[in-house]
Amino acid sequence: MIGAALLALYYFIDPSMAHFPIRCPLHELTGIQCPACGSQRALHAILHGEWNEALRFNAFFTIVAPIALPITVAIVWGRNRRLRSVFCNRYFFGAFIAAYIIWGVLRFISEFGFLN
């Protein structure tokens, strides 16, 4: 229920225009984009079918979110043990964290402007 309400909120409120969404403290203080910066704007763009814009805001989120949502729903509501054994283990979690850290490092490096 809460997830549906949040999706509706991000569908109707554009984070780049509104003052409501939570701002990234790191970006506000330093101007440096953290790995999650742009996720709210990317979610808004995804919900409106603007995939190129979503990739521009946060490529990692844009790629991971559509994959993670159905898996999470299947694990939580479906009680699917096979999915749980594949996605809820330390190796998968470690690979995800490693990918997230690599994304953050690449995003931090200003020479990789196409990732911002």
Key features of this structure:
single chain, 116 residues
Short description:
The protein has 116 residues and is mainly α.
Give the SSE layout.
Blueprint: H1 2-12, H2 25-30, H3 39-47, H4 51-57, H5 59-78, H6 81-87, H7 90-108
Helix pairs in contact: 1-3, 3-4, 4-5
Percent of residues in β-strands: under 5%
Shape: globular
The total of beta strands comes to 0
Unreliable stretches (pLDDT < 50, length at least 5) are: none
SSE order, as H and E? HHHHHHH
Mean pLDDT: 83
> Please, how many helices?
7
Distance from first to last alpha carbon: 32 Å
Structural class: mainly alpha
Instruction: Provide the helix percentage.
Output: 55-70%
Number of domains: 1
Largest sheet: none
Account of the protein in words:
This protein has one domain. The protein contains seven helices and no strands. The protein has helices at 2-12, 25-30, 39-47, 51-57, 59-78, 81-87, 90-108. Helix 4 (51-57) packs across helix 5 (59-78).
